[in-house]
Amino acid sequence: MNFIMRGRLWSFGFRSTIMLYFILLVVLPIIGVYSQSLKLGWSPFWESVTDQLAWEAVLLTIKLALISTVINVLLGTMIGWVLIRYRFPGRRLLNSLVDLPFALPTAVGGLMILLLLGPNSFVGGLADKLGFEIVFHEPAIIVAMIFVTFPFVIRGVQPLLEELDKSEEEASYTLGASKARTFMQVIFPSMLPGIISGAMLAFSRALAEFGAVVLVAGNIPGKTLIASVYIFGEIESDNAQGAAAVSVLLLTLSFLILGAVNLVQARRQGK
């Protein structure tokens, strides 16, 4: 009996500790952001959200995040396919490097992009000769977003390809279907949930990226000033309420995306 009571107490204490940790680390900061944004009332919040600079920064961030997500979907699906379906020298090393953006400080990633694509680099010099610039313009921001969100689609697709029943693929070939038709009607539907969830997570992550982007983005409103850099500027200008208001927009959008990801995963598990 004492053993059972001790087990229940230990389980209750463990769960309570986890919940307390979650509340302190996640829930309270989120409540703090929403509270700060509405601290001065609804009117100042609405003025901050509808400010032209803020609105242009948010729209630009969404646009560039969508572009980076589309590129990530295409590249990530192909890379995930190659890593699962083919065996070649260096495959394990390449597979481990996929997670490098998760382990590498994002500021270091931004510095790498700056050194590789800056005006003093070979690529940057070649682009300058062709009449366009990369760093401190939209292309560099897109590259930075792609870098930090690179693993999501790949890691979303790989387990689905590993779980795919090859007998279905072989049956399609036996019935006379071409490789392209087999891929579109048998393989791709199985990969689609991973592609969708990975794309949504990549988009959400790109919306909030700061460390890699701030080194390669400019501050030209409507052209290179994205939401995270705008929020940083508002904090430096001692306008915490304005920064919180724009943060609430991004945070709410991230919550909606997270809910969509959970819905996709729930439907997949339901099948």
From TrEMBL:
Subunit relationships: The complex is composed of two ATP-binding proteins (CysA), two transmembrane proteins (CysT and CysW) and a solute-binding protein (CysP).
Domain of life: Bacteria
Entry-linked Pfam families: BPD_transp_1
UniProt gene name: cysT
Lineage: Bacteria, Bacillati, Bacillota, Bacilli, Bacillales
Topology of the protein relative to the lipid bilayer: Multi-pass membrane protein
Chief place of localization: membrane
Gene Ontology MF terms: ABC-type sulfate transporter activity; molybdate ion transmembrane transporter activity
Similarity section: Belongs to the binding-protein-dependent transport system permease family. CysTW subfamily.
Protein species of origin: Paenibacillus rhizovicinus
Domain ABC transmembrane type-1 residues, every copy: 58-262
Function: Part of the binding-protein-dependent transport system for molybdenum; probably responsible for the translocation of the substrate across the membrane.
Cell compartment(s), UniProt: Cell membrane; Membrane
Gene Ontology, cellular component aspect: plasma membrane
Keywords of the record: Cell membrane, Membrane, Molybdenum, Sulfate transport, Transmembrane, Transmembrane helix, Transport
Transmembrane segments: 12-34, 54-84, 96-119, 139-161, 210-232, 244-264
Identification of the protein by name: Molybdenum transport system permease
